């Protein structure tokens, strides 16, 4: 993913010591460990959590929605972001 010049100016090294009001919409936080989310990740979590919403696993159904393809379950997104960001929560 390339970033436009305004995005480059908004990158932050991390948020250690930041309060809620210090966050600004559009800030980008880079973490040293990346992760590619795969279709398998989404299917596994949908099965594990017994998610029955077809937009998360049924390609035919999802193709008819405004998104055009299956969506990643938001609980997976939350877990992934929390896990990747947790090293920045260290108390110094």
Count of discrete domains: 2
Mean of residue pLDDT? 79
- Which homologous superfamily in CATH is the superfamily of the largest domain? Hotdog Thioesterase
CATH fold-type name of the largest domain? Thiol Ester Dehydrase, Chain A
Q: How many alpha or pi helices?
A: 4
**CATH architecture classification of the largest domain:** Roll
| Distance separating the two termini | 32 Å
Radius of gyration, rounded? 17 Å
Q: Portion of residues in helices?
A: 25-40%
> Largest beta sheet: what is the strand line-up?
1-2
Molecular shape: elongated
Q: List SSEs in N-to-C order.
A: HEEHHH
Q: Regarding CATH, which class of the largest domain?
A: Alpha Beta
Q: In terms of per-residue confidence, which ranges show pLDDT below 50 for 5 or more consecutive residues? A: none
Helix/strand-derived class?
A: mainly alpha
Largest sheet: 2 strands, parallel
């Amino acid at each position: 993913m390339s970033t436009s010049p305004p995005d480059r100016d908004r990158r932050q090294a991390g948020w250690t010591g930041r309060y809620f009001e210090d966050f600004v919409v559009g800030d980008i936080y880079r973490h040293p460990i990346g992760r590619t989310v795969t279709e398998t990740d989404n299917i596994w979590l949908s099965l594990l959590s017994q998610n029955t919403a077809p937009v998360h696993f049924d390609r035919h159904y999802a193709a008819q929605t405004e998104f055009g393809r299956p969506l990643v379950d938001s609980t997976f997104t939350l877990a992934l972001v929390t896990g990747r960001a947790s090293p920045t929560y260290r108390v110094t």
